[in-house]
Design a protein that fits this description.
mainly alpha, four-stranded antiparallel β-sheet
Length: 397
């Protein structure tokens, strides 16, 4: 099957069809809309986009196209001044705020419906083993609250939320203030990935699917590996945009674009796909795809994993590349002739997370997948239990 064929196969998941099917009916959509409205309104208040305070003077509503201190991500901006306060709607933060609110509304509404159906199933003596599906709706909501207000105002976001984003992105809180557009994009990406994870949970709990034993070590191992890959892949993919705050993409060198394309996105998107579509990914890298596509994909994957997860010679470090061993050598104070390069951030949670998840885990899994797709697929797949004809989670997909 071609890459286009696989895209068509996973498109219903990317389009969140199971989540949307769960919201059929005016009442469910009304709940989702109400939750989205509350999240968006709270974000506007926390981020300073909406200020409720008595005003005096001329009451206006205007569109500002530029000329202010902010960058491209801010304009055009709608500015409204009324007797009850001010509304400030810059374009990128506003779009991100609306989409984050919609994602949180969908996730919470679907989770609430699953809880209600589970309680009914418990009362009738069925479906008790499917409690894992109840937590699915919490992901997008938690993700949207982690940096509440960040869509609108970086400095208004909580210190804890900023610290978490900085650690996950391999940077510092101070640097995030210089890349003001990054937090809205980061928050939007995390909410969407959370919805994708929820989509997968809904589909796995469909009627007739085998139910995994939650106490089975194989299930726990596969679930833990998928979660770690999802976290590492999402954060490392988004960290590329932090680097864009230091290096202009339009003038970047070929080596830098190799770092962004192969070491960032190929490794990250492969990890995310492995966490969400383990069977489809294993088939794509094995006999399920054309020979040229299969060999080319595995070669590119292994190349990015080796240069990022292992080591590059000193000649390549001068071009801006460097693997895990290069950074460890720099941390230990070895000479540049060994290929040593200093880490980008001081020793701390951000650097440890960067080494363990974004260097070691992503690269090791990519090498394993390139070497043996079927084996890597078995690491990620849950062991199947008994069929579940009476499942209460039954998306029509």
């Amino acid at each position: 099957m071609s890459a286009l064929g696989y895209l068509r196969r996973i498109w219903p998941i990317l389009a969140l069809r199971a989540n949307r099917e769960r919201l059929r009916g005016g009442g469910r959509r009304a709940i989702a809309a109400a939750i989205a409205f509350v999240v968006a309104l709270t974000s506007m208040l926390a981020g300073g986009m909406l200020t409720l305070t008595p005003t005096q003077g001329v009451y206006t509503a205007e569109v500002i196209t530029g000329g202010g201190p902010s960058g491209w991500w801010f304009y055009p901006e709608i500015l409204i001044a009324q007797p009850w306060g001010y509304v400030q709607l810059p374009w990128l933060p506003t779009v991100a705020m609306l989409l984050v609110g919609i994602g949180a509304g969908i996730g919470a509404a679907v989770g609430l419906e699953i809880v209600i159906q589970w309680l009914r199933a418990r009362a009738s003596g069925r479906g008790a083993t499917e409690i894992a599906g109840i937590a699915a709706g919490a992901g997008p909501g938690v993700a949207s609250l982690a940096t509440l207000g960040a869509c609108c105002c970086t400095s208004c976001s909580s210190a804890t939320g900023l610290a978490l984003v900085a650690a996950a992105s391999g940077t510092t809180v101070a640097h995030l203030f210089t890349v003001n557009w990054y937090l809205p994009v980061f928050q939007l990406a995390v909410v969407y990935v959370s919805l994708l994870a929820q989509e997968r949970t809904l589909r796995l709990a469909a009627p007739g699917r085998g139910l995994a034993d939650l106490r089975d070590p194989r299930f726990l191992g596969a679930a833990s590996l998928r979660l770690a890959l999802l976290i590492a892949g999402t954060t490392w993919s988004m960290a590329m945009f932090v680097e864009w705050g230091d290096v202009n993409p339009w003038t970047a060198s070929a080596a830098t674009w190799y770092h962004w394309g192969f070491e960032h996105q190929v490794l990250s998107l492969t990890a995310i796909a492995a966490a969400l579509f383990p069977r489809e990914l294993a088939r794509f890298f094995s006999a399920g795809s054309r020979r040229v596509t299969r060999l080319g994909s595995r070669t590119f994957l292994a190349l990015g994993a080796l240069t990022w997860g292992v080591w590059v010679p000193p000649a390549l470090t001068h071009l801006g590349l460097g693997g895990l061993l290069n950074e460890l050598a720099g941390y230990l104070g070895l000479a540049p002739s060994w290929g040593a390069i200093p880490p980008d951030v001081p020793v701390g949670p951000a650097l440890v997370f960067h080494w363990l998840f974004q260097h070691l885990l992503l690269s090791a899994f990519a090498l394993a997948l390139a070497a043996s797709p079927s084996l890597a697929g078995r690491w990620l797949d849950e062991p199947k239990g008994a069929p579940s004809p009476g499942s209460f989670v039954s998306p029509s997909v």
